Amino acid sequence: MTEKRITIYDLARQLNTTASTVSRALQDHPGISKPMKEAVRKLATKLNYQTNYRALSLRKGFGNTIGILVPQVNRNFFATVIHGIETIAAASGYHVLICQSFESLSKEKIQLKNLLNGRVDGLIASVSLETKSCTHFESFMATGLPLVFFDRVPDTMDVSKITIDDYASAYKITEHLIANGCSRIALFGGPEHINIYRNRAAGYRDALNDNKLPVSGELHCVNAITRETGYQAMAELVSNGVAFDAVFAAGDYGALGAMLYAREKRIDIPGAVAITGYANEPFGEIIDPPLTSVDQHGIEMGRQSARMLIEEIEHKGESYIPREIVLRSEIIYRPSSQRNG
Amino acid sequence: MTEKRITIYDLARQLNTTASTVSRALQDHPGISKPMKEAVRKLATKLNYQTNYRALSLRKGFGNTIGILVPQVNRNFFATVIHGIETIAAASGYHVLICQSFESLSKEKIQLKNLLNGRVDGLIASVSLETKSCTHFESFMATGLPLVFFDRVPDTMDVSKITIDDYASAYKITEHLIANGCSRIALFGGPEHINIYRNRAAGYRDALNDNKLPVSGELHCVNAITRETGYQAMAELVSNGVAFDAVFAAGDYGALGAMLYAREKRIDIPGAVAITGYANEPFGEIIDPPLTSVDQHGIEMGRQSARMLIEEIEHKGESYIPREIVLRSEIIYRPSSQRNG
DNA sequence: TATTTTTGAACAATCGATTACATCATTGTT
DNA sequence: AACAATGATGTAATCGATTGTTCAAAAATA
Description:
Two copies of one chain form a homodimer.
Chain A: H1 8-14, H2 19-26, H3 34-46, H4 53-60, E1 65-70, H5 76-91, E2 95-100, H6 105-116, E3 123-125, H7 135-142, E4 147-150, E5 160-164, H8 166-179, E6 185-188, H9 195-210, E7 220-221, H10 227-239, E8 246-249, H11 252-264, E9 274-276, H12 283-286, E10 293-295, H13 298-314, E11 324-327, E12 330-332
Parallel strand pairs in A: 1-2, 1-3, 3-4, 4-5, 5-11, 6-7, 6-8, 8-9
Antiparallel strand pairs in A: 10-12
Chain A binds a DNA duplex through residues 5, 7-9, 17-21, 23-24, 27, 29, 31-33, 36, 51-52, 54-61, 118.
């Protein structure tokens, strides 16, 4: 059952030569004669020799593997980013190791510890909702491993980051609601220690201010980015008798909760309440009415993250100046927010 | 910048002892004195020593890592199974390495090659849609690494497998459609070299036969499991003037395509055409009308897969008899298929 | 033919851990 | 006082690859 793995020593023995010769032959080293190379290769394929990654990476000190740490893979945005990373990684000869924090700080820390034990040569990460302090990421960096953040990035750290224009798109989508006749726009926000939610909230507020609309506290639902909290936030607005004619949700799932509540209570969308989301999850196109949202160009974000990280990995030793890239997002206008159309 | 990693040799040098003592101290070996253990541990934490996974796994011959190879992580079912696997893996001290085939045979082969190079101690897999022959999985097994398949499993291979009762649930859901007055039920199938689609189709056919309903070729849409192909299949049925009053889709995305076509053409669901899906993707609850589907208990499937694999890993050497587990699925009845109700 | 150059392959160190075995000092036994 | 038992470390081999150095034989040159 447990058949031994073939090693270069096995090959060497059968060919009456040494492991070093076998190793060089397999690498097409110039110092090895043609017939020897032939013989080695032939035997290697015959015995289905596979180079032992563990030995190789120990010897070389790197393993051509990049780690990805995301809150959840079961979100279209993250899955898409991963896809983008994989295309670039594969093209550059890197493998990808995916880990999830499930939005939990403690799990994030555990995953990070595993990763830096020599499993990866660099990391692409997006922090969990619970992550306020980043000491664990700092000790990851202290080991000298390159790190690139995307989307949810800690702003206290001096690392490469890639984000989208959260502020600008939130501003723009809020103005879109205003243009559609909304003046009392509720904000379904997320934890503001996370850059994206802070920036989206800021864009929303500034758009209101610039349009001479009041920013009201009762319209600010602090934690409403899941389906459940979105539903609840909507329910509370209604039951508290708060007057509002739109919801700007900082995430699609919060918007979904709002829509489901509206459906249940027969609140007309967008007639009574216009709704917009954020992330352009696929269900937004399916739901009735289809949901206006912001596409974050996940594939591109993934590609750029991977390129940055690989560059850092391959220039290791030379001091690398962290870069920050901000991608332009795209607002996808759908019926949930358009009153005249 | 590139700060050297601390090794046990560094610790030994600073403590005027040897690496073996340090190693033993860190493992709480009984032969090491208390004060020495204390000193080692203190220095280790002070210098933030991390054991080198590459060296460790080379030495030990295993790395406490299990690989997962799935078509896509961006499917609720697969993401859920992965979650289930992770819970068990974490509890047993294993890490998880996730890879995607993106439904492509060639990518599946590449991922598999990477995995067997000593990166994992065992693999949990579900094959891609393109996978007809399994020689690549056989050569994975030939290296002696344990392998467990779930859901989409090759029936030619003698390995542990975990599936759900596709046949039974398809039979039952077809009878449900019949009970709702449907007699001309279209089958939106998938490639029948994949066990699950073959079994679902068989359950459908047998239910029709047992209820004395004809199995008509024109109602069998061979490849309709994506949103696009589902849409197209529906369009073709209609444009070919085929009489049908229900769709049993072997996958939720095929059902989604059908529903979107129906929505576009104002075909009443379930009045004119009743529709059922398979996999219980979350959008099924959101879409209007909500979609009847089959829940596959992904978490449980993941848990059991992980348990089986870990057991095989830890009993390596002893010859292991492959097991097959069939889980009971659950039909989630929703309005898309209920005419009286 | 004697000497130098080239060629092809062997030798041995290394990566960072673990672990069987050897060694030494101490304590206990008779 | 002689000897065994114990406890605490050190020595060295090992996992499977890579690679700088060495070395012998063959080829080229004088």
